[in-house]
């Protein structure tokens, strides 16, 4: 299989066939992200995609799930994605779901008819990095879309029948705003009802605008206590059935839970860590590695 530059996928896609259709990230401007910073965005030729699918057919003929890499593969036009999906079904007829990272902007770039067509071809379980439900924080993180766009575009996915996971970050709004961020995320989650919610935690990766702003005193990261209180509040406020998918290693208290069934045990788990951790640690900002 052909892979160019760094390849990221959600931890939950560890057993999924990774098929490269783009290199890098078309947006590549988020305030906090270094994932594809040094990679020039490009689109793979269909001949290359077909070659990879021929190889996959030989090695993994029974595969049921395909993840399209890289950073925002849903940026491809509806027509291109349709052609890729049809080619996947030709070579791997047992595939049920074709998933990938997607941004709110990527959804905006497709008509309702295109979205419906893609849903019929098995495109779903999109990993949508919304990051925060707070307008000003979203603006600062430079995701390239507004909060109103997020509400509208995620509802468009619902209407088209495309399932999705809501990616967000604890601490996204900075120091002193964890509860506010939890309330804003929960409001958006409760409105758009994602299949799952996928938290990570904001961290200052070297070379980013975020790291620079922190060094210059223009942004303050949330303390560990605030991050944990935000996690707890999010769990308390989400009141639609969804999967809490929080195993990313960047999260201090990482676990999965089925909501609402596991809500109380999930809250208790975070509470236990808060009560069992020294104040010195809780009131500090721990170093976190890059996502
Ligand atoms: S967070 Fe996602 S959309 Fe933003 S620059 Fe990084 S890979 Fe691209």
UniProtKB/TrEMBL annotation:
This protein's UniProt keywords: Coiled coil, Iron, Iron-sulfur, Metal-binding, S-adenosyl-L-methionine
InterPro entries assigned to the protein according to its UniProt record, in alphabetical order: Aldolase_TIM (IPR013785), BchE-like (IPR051198), Elp3/MiaA/NifB-like_rSAM (IPR006638), rSAM (IPR007197), rSAM_sf (IPR058240)
Gene3D superfamilies cross-referenced by the UniProt entry: Aldolase class I
Database matches in SMART domains: Elp3
Any coiled-coil regions, as ranges: 39-66
Cofactor(s) the protein needs: [4Fe-4S] cluster
Coiled coil among keywords: yes
The Radical SAM core domain, residue ranges: 11-248
Domain of life, per lineage: Bacteria
Protein name: Radical SAM protein
């Amino acid at each position: 299989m052909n892979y160019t530059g760094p390849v990221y996928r959600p931890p939950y896609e560890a057993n999924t066939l990774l098929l490269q259709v783009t290199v890098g990230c078309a947006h590549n401007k988020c305030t906090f992200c270094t994932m594809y910073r040094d990679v020039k965005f490009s689109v793979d030729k269909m001949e290359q995609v077909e070659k990879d699918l021929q190889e996959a057919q030989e090695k993994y003929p029974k595969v049921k799930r395909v993840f399209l890499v890289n950073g925002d593969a849903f940026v491809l036009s509806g027509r291109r994605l349709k052609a890729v999906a049809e080619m996947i079904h030709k070579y791997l007829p047992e595939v049920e779901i074709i998933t990938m990272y997607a941004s709110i902007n990527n959804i905006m770039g497709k008509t309702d008819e295109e979205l419906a067509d893609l849903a019929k071809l098995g495109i779903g379980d999109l990993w949508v990095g919304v990051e925060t439900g707070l307008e000003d924080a979203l603006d600062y993180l430079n995701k390239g879309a507004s909060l109103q766009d997020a509400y509208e575009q995620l509802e468009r996915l619902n209407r088209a029948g495309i399932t999705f996971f809501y990616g967000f970050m604890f601490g996204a709004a900075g120091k002193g705003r964890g509860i506010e961020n939890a309330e804003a995320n929960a409001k958006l989650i409760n409105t758009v009802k994602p299949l799952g919610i996928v938290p990570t935690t904001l961290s200052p990766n070297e070379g980013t605008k975020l790291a620079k702003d922190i060094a210059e005193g223009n942004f303050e990261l949330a303390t560990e206590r605030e991050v944990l209180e935000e996690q707890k509040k999010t769990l308390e406020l989400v009141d639609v059935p969804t999967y809490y998918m929080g195993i990313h290693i960047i999260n201090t208290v990482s676990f999965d839970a089925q909501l609402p069934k596991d809500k109380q045990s999930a809250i208790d788990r975070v509470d236990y860590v808060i009560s069992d951790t020294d104040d010195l640690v809780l009131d500090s900002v721990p170093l976190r590695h890059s996502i």
